[in-house]
Amino acid sequence: LKVRTLVQLADLLWEKGDEAYAQQLFLNTQELLRGMKPSKAGDTPSGEDRDMSLTPDKYNRLQALLIQKLTRHDAALAERLMGEGSVALSINADIKIEENVRLANELMRKGQYAEASRQAEQALGGRLSGLRNLTILLTLLNNLRKSDLKAADNLFLQTLVQLKRQPEVTANDVLIVGNYLFTGAGVAEHLRSQVFISPARVGDTHLQADISIDRPSLMPAVVRAYLNVATEVLGRPAVDAGDAKLKAAAAQLLLPKARRFTPDLVPRLSILAAASGVVPPADERVGTERVADPRARNADLDSVLKEVDKLAEKDARHKYILERFRYFYLKRDFMAAMAVADKSSDADLHNRLADLVRFAQAASLIEQGRLDPVEQAASRLGSPSLRQLLGLSVARTYLKREDTVAAENAVNAVFNDARRGAASVQQLYPLLNAVEMLATVDASFAAGRLNDLVSAFNAVEAKGAASPPNRLLETVRYKDHSIIIPVSVPGINPGNFYLALRPLTLTDPRGTVLAVLEIKNESVLSEGMQALARALLD
Questions:
Q1: Whole-model pTM?
Q2: Fewer beta carbons under 10 A from the terminal one: N or C of the chain?
Q3: d(CA 468, CA 530)
Q4: In Å, how far are 131, 134, 537 from 504, measured between CA atoms?
């Protein structure tokens, strides 16, 4: 994470015109990499040795990232560093896999299918990553598939095993590999048996490979194997906010496939997909396929309540309650949603759903400018994160009325609530709104809240990556089933370090820098430092 952050900062500095300092930062980062020792196969972490988790593949990827960013600014220097460092290892791996697969394709053309398959297996020892290498491999698999479907499927399964073993696999890698089974919506039907990698878009996120359309002769067991590996890979901690966004978008593309082939993976993929910012209702078209929900067409409340009463089995009953609650909630029919929630016999689940209804109703009051009832409504919420979102929105509304005292009182109440403890780092990011909204009105007050927020970040136990959320969402679970609910509230975003820090750097740059450097969670610190650098350079 430290290396990635330094590389991003060097890239930013060069873009902003500080070429000399950026070049030195690239060189210093290269020296840092040289001093890091990748672990050996079979090693396990012990004591304070943090390098044990740095696999050779991960080390090579860090080297490649540095060279990639530096090449944009100084190709000659990048070439020199590449010759000096071990980044050549990853490039050699690319060359090896390409040579092996090309040889396998040549054997395929000669009809030597068994030898071609063995040659391809050797290729799987190389790094499976990148559009070029994976497209070459897919072409081989596709050629083999035309002559021996079973052999091609078996080789694809070996590819999945190798992919799963790799410590770092990108979201695009996952989707490109999936093009053995699927293809893009823009590919003509008569060409769907060929390898055509077409791009996809989820919200404002662009991905290299679309998987909307099934290829002919799919074996369900092979599809399930792919979806299991894809879900496991996408569920790994993201290296930064950009990686998290790509993984969420890829999960969104995988959801329709999971609903058909691996329903047990839908809850996990739904949670992963939520951060994409595209959360379609249960009966909305996803990609090119309609979600299979035979009850989704039954939108009449009376019929839904009768259907709930018919379901004697508790798990099936509560799964249906969640689905129908989400349907009515997204239609903003909150009375109907509450009526469905009232059918739940699980107290915790009922309280979570009731919280969401009360929150949505309070958010509507804020939109109408009626703030007095909101405080009472917020006090009834059991969810701290929902209470805090309402408080932040109230503060924003007071500021629009130029009532700074009331706004600061509302913000203080939010931070007092947050001091009682947050369940995760991501729940704290929206509090950056408080710093941002007050920084231009009362810089001293905003700086104090920034320090409070840093303390809150530091009080939360660090568990993996802590990338900022792309959208305000709440996940409600009942056993192995879950729903994702958007919780928008007027004037509040998911939290943006740059927007919060930019005005403070104008009034107290030193104090702002010192506050950010106090962050202990490395993922949050990385986000804060990159935003701080942009703010100072603008």
A1: 0.60
A2: C
A3: 13
A4: 42, 46, 13
